[in-house]
Write a structure and sequence with these properties.
The protein is of the alpha+beta class. The protein has a five-stranded antiparallel β-sheet with strand order 4-3-6-7-8, with helices on one face. Strands 1-2-5 form a three-stranded antiparallel β-sheet. A hairpin with an 8-residue loop joins strand 7 and strand 8. Helix 2 packs antiparallel against helix 3. The radius of gyration is 16 Å and the shape is globular. It starts with 7 loop residues before the first helix and ends with a strand.
Length: 170
């Protein structure tokens, strides 16, 4: 899949097609893509699979996406672009685990709240430290194994900080 600046969902459509045609039908995957343009407050996102995308800032936790059908599930599956407002001092947390596919909405909200509470009080810390905090929360949540979780955090800060955007992943 070539790195091209096309619509966000096109990458997921292409990856889905490759996985669908190249596997025996038992392969599934999750994928998250975001386009963040310097100087703009809107991020263009697309996600597939057992991923949850949260926008955390102030007193709010907004569920932006997920979990959704994985890549490779259906040949004709098409993915949508989500426009997400990402103001200063807000972060975007993307976490994934196979466990999400089996959770009800109440369990997901409980996990989202625990993650947000852990991160909100430490928003001033570097992105890599916030990822470690979120990883600790996921590790303490019943049913989520250490080898079955991924995470990406995007933290947007003002230019007077050490950088406009910081990201970290685990």
């Amino acid at each position: 899949i070539a790195p091209q600046r096309k619509a966000v969902e096109r990458l997921l459509d292409k990856a889905n097609s490759i996985l669908w045609t190249g596997s025996a039908g038992n392969q599934r995957a999750g994928l998250f893509q975001a386009i963040l343009t310097p100087g703009e407050q809107i991020a263009q996102l697309s996600a597939a699979g057992p991923l949850r995308v949260l926008a955390i800032g102030g007193d709010e936790i907004d569920v932006v996406a997920g979990p959704a059908a994985p890549l490779g599930w259906q040949d004709d599956r098409r993915f949508e672009t989500i426009a997400c407002d990402l103001p200063l001092d807000q972060l975007l947390l993307v976490y994934g685990t196979g466990y999400l596919a089996f959770c009800d909405e109440l369990t997901l909200r409980t996990l989202d709240t625990q993650l947000a509470l852990a991160l909100k009080s430490s928003m001033h810390r570097p992105a890599a430290e916030l990822v470690e905090l979120a990883d600790d929360v996921l590790g303490d949540f019943p049913g989520i194994d250490a080898g079955d979780r991924v995470m990406l955090l995007i933290k947007r800060r003002g230019r007077e900080s050490t950088g406009d955007r910081k990201s970290a992943r685990k």
